[in-house]
Amino acid sequence: MSQTYDKVALIGLGLIASSMYWAMKREGLAGEVRGYARSSETRDVAREIGLCDSVCDSAAEAVRDADLVVLCVPVGAMGAVAEEIAPHLKAGATVSDVGSVKKAVIEAVGPYLPDNVNFIPAHPLAGTEHSGPGSGFAELFDNRYTLLVPAQNTPQKAVQKLRELWEGIGAKVEEMDAEHHDLVLGVTSHAPHLIAYTMVGVADDLRRVTDSEVIKYSAAGFRDFTRIAASDPTMWRDVFLNNKEATLEILGRFTEELFALQRAIRTGDGDLLHAYFTRTRAIRRGIIEAGQDTDAPDFGRVKK
Amino acid sequence: MSQTYDKVALIGLGLIASSMYWAMKREGLAGEVRGYARSSETRDVAREIGLCDSVCDSAAEAVRDADLVVLCVPVGAMGAVAEEIAPHLKAGATVSDVGSVKKAVIEAVGPYLPDNVNFIPAHPLAGTEHSGPGSGFAELFDNRYTLLVPAQNTPQKAVQKLRELWEGIGAKVEEMDAEHHDLVLGVTSHAPHLIAYTMVGVADDLRRVTDSEVIKYSAAGFRDFTRIAASDPTMWRDVFLNNKEATLEILGRFTEELFALQRAIRTGDGDLLHAYFTRTRAIRRGIIEAGQDTDAPDFGRVKK
Question: pTM of the predicted model, to two decimals?
Fold first, then answer.
């Protein structure tokens, strides 16, 4: 595949940035990639493992002359980073991000950026429960969606170029507006994460069931929740604080529905439960048919 | 490994029974294994794929002369099956089950069984989202726990023999009493399943987020829930109806905790959220250290 950007800057060097770097290099999509992380420890690790062509000691240095700057920091840190890099951006550059919420990032970042750069917010729907500079791998985006949320007045050519980068590193790309993005992700990601965190917290709290029992007997269902609830705490704190409205709305719906099922259990309404569980089974089939998960039992954990 | 039982009867031929059969055969642990399923379609499939040494057309025929009878039917069907087989059980036989709740099964099955058989309830903490006679595989129990819930007056020798069978097919075996079992499983399995079913149901209901979007963008977290929510509807209906008390108690705790986190989101209490998410991350590490899940990112779905 041919190069899409000559110079790329990755600000923040966690799971997403490091995976982007390895994938861009695998495909030869970027000329020089410079990286920056606020923590000197992270920068040291990056240098050690060869993450980025060069690791800079300031964000300003990293973005200088860059054709594409990707903000890969927690959502709550986006505004401060934008303020820091704004004076150093090259005219005509594209600034993007990989944050899990879009309305709040646009509001935080947009005001700092000069008029002569194109801000094209993005969100790759890919990740694992691991984090940090050592957690990335080139295949992370393969067959996963990346959502672009361009403003209406963004030049089509700039959007197209960013699309080509994401497609080049394996992703399927779609565009949507920020409000819709935040609602969809509230359902498919933010509410499920909060629920998983809660369930794991409850299990940890229950004094009559010792920690060791919860852990030993986790294969019965619980361990799936613990994977999600092992995701990066800072990233997720920021997601919830910055997608409040949609998350709280969906959690409200969730509680309402949970109460209905609890009542069915209490009153012994087996028909309601059976019909409900039959309906949810169909959704799983849809996900497998759409190529978004494996049909192997237990996510393929068990090797036959 | 040497044979533990000469004649074994499996009543109900779903995921657990079929996995037991393949595992027992692999290890040469049972002489002759007879199977029975209520549905003639299931019996046909079993005969076709060679599941069991012989498939009988009645439960009475299957249990005749059996040294071990394992009830592998949904919890709600256990009582009726026990009534049906009771007159045909061999003196000195062991009757066991694989139900996910134990108090209700003991109450349903116990009264029907003659005094000259040993009833040793059991629960293998293993399964996948697949069901039916074709879903079993010999490795299902490898390194998973099986809990035995023997009554106090059960001869130790009979318990030991059943333990050897389970250990022989790969499981780690522990004993506990029925009440404690139902509480522990309420936490590690029943509440998480109901929560997953609910979250998937809510996503399906949300009209502004089309089905196709929920499915396409599921990799962001939601798809983990759909695997659990794809589990067998009949089995799970019966679990909830038969472990009402513990399930409802834990769901009450869960809701309380969820409300606290919702309030933290609403009021912007980032410190509370961050501390909570850091605590839950530690539990995941415990599960991995205990050998009860893989540390590979995303359950190893992504092949590096």
Answer: 0.89
